[in-house]
Design a protein that fits this description.
Blueprint: H1 4-88, H2 91-109
Length: 164
């Protein structure tokens, strides 16, 4: 029949093949189970993010509506006070109120200009934001071979940089 060594080698080979196939199967099953958990957590996190974004959008929409309501209420109160002052005050005070309201309205009718972020310059000269403001074309011989007094190595705190 078969020799003991051939039977032993065949059994050993079958055992190793079974262990290898079992390890591959367990790895596949683990990946499937763990991967499914990760996908589920990712889906849950995306859902929570969408809910949060929706809540933030609703919050700001509601805040905007409340600010608009507050602005309208302020206008209504101001108009009520102005009308009451015109009805109840003397003609001289009513004229002062109307003049003040007209002067305030003229403030809003004036054209707006953007702020000037630069210093005024003399005509014909270069402004302070010019690329070559303050630069001279001539080269000074004493600065031609200028070497800085400090180098990056002067600030080496761990002591690993080499000196010159």
């Amino acid at each position: 029949m078969f020799s003991f060594s051939a039977l032993f080698v065949t059994g050993l080979f079958s055992l190793l093949a079974g262990v290898a196939l079992g390890a591959i199967g367990i790895g596949y099953a683990r990946g499937k189970w763990l991967g499914g958990g990760i996908e589920q957590r990712l889906h849950q996190a995306e859902t929570e993010l969408q809910h949060y974004q929706r809540d933030v959008a609703e919050h700001f929409a509601h805040t905007s509506q409340l600010v608009n309501n507050l602005t309208q209420a302020y206008r209504d109160v101001h108009e009520h006070l102005a009308n009451g002052a015109l009805k109840l005050a003397t003609p001289a005070i009513s004229k002062q109120i109307l003049d003040a309201a007209n002067s305030d309205a003229s403030l809003y009718e004036q054209p707006l200009q953007p702020p000037r972020d630069w210093a005024p310059r003399a005509p014909g000269s270069k402004g302070t934001l010019s690329d070559d403001y303050g630069l001279k074309d001539e080269e000074h011989p004493e600065t031609k071979h200028f070497r800085p007094t400090e180098s990056p190595d002067d600030f080496d705190f761990d002591g690993k940089a080499s000196r010159y």
